[in-house]
Amino acid sequence: MIKVKGVEKSYNSEKVLRGVSLEFGKGDFVSIMGESGSGKSTLLGIIGGFIQADAGTVFIDGKDVSALSEREMAKMRSSVLGFVFQSYALIPTLNVRDNIFLTATLGKKTDPETKEYAEGLIKRLGLSEMLDKYPTELSGGQCQRAAIIRALVYKPSIVILDEPTGALDSKSEAAVMRVLTEINRDLGTTVIQVTHSEKVAAYAKKIIRLVDGEIVL
Questions:
Q1: Which pLDDT tens digit goes with each residue over 157-208?
Q2: pTM value?
Q3: Which of 75, 90, 112, 213 is most exposed by smallest CB count within 10 Å?
Q4: What is the residue extent of each domain of the chain?
């Protein structure tokens, strides 16, 4: 499903990723851990097509991510790949409702079933009373939950999350991790998350550690 081969990345001559090779299959649930600066977020950004690698390749469903046009990559993100940024990346001029349904709308998945599924996620993650508010009116935890729902709402086959619980209290953290566990189990969704939390990492079936840009088994 996802094949990462020999990926390297440097910033200002400082090597962040050193020939990273990984494979993620359908139904995998993987936590990536490592100290700050170990290359975790950079690796996710390269897999998601937001960052260009200096060397190496990433294939998603057999397609070379680096060879896709911006339009093709956008189509993949609105159909196959759900991505949750550490910074949330909500659009400030849209209310929470429109932010949540943005990728579903772009992917033309606005059917009643999708709407019902989204409403269930919204209720479970405690945002029912926040739908008409704007990102600037929300707490960090509420923004994080909105970003997670946005990534899940159209049932992508792959979900990539960068520190999905970093701004959440323990109750919201547990709710988010229950949702991720359920979609992995019930829908066969491949879940890849970066986290600093051993507790959150333990929800995954496998933990991968990055140290100075290299995989340590």
A1: 999 999 999 999 999 999 999 999 999 999 999 999 999 999 999 999 999 9
A2: 0.93
A3: 112
A4: 2-216
Residue 96 one-letter amino acid:
V
* CA-based nearest residue to 149, from 134, 171, 170, 128: 128
How many residues are recorded in the chain?
217
The dotted CATH code for 2-216 is 3.40.50.300
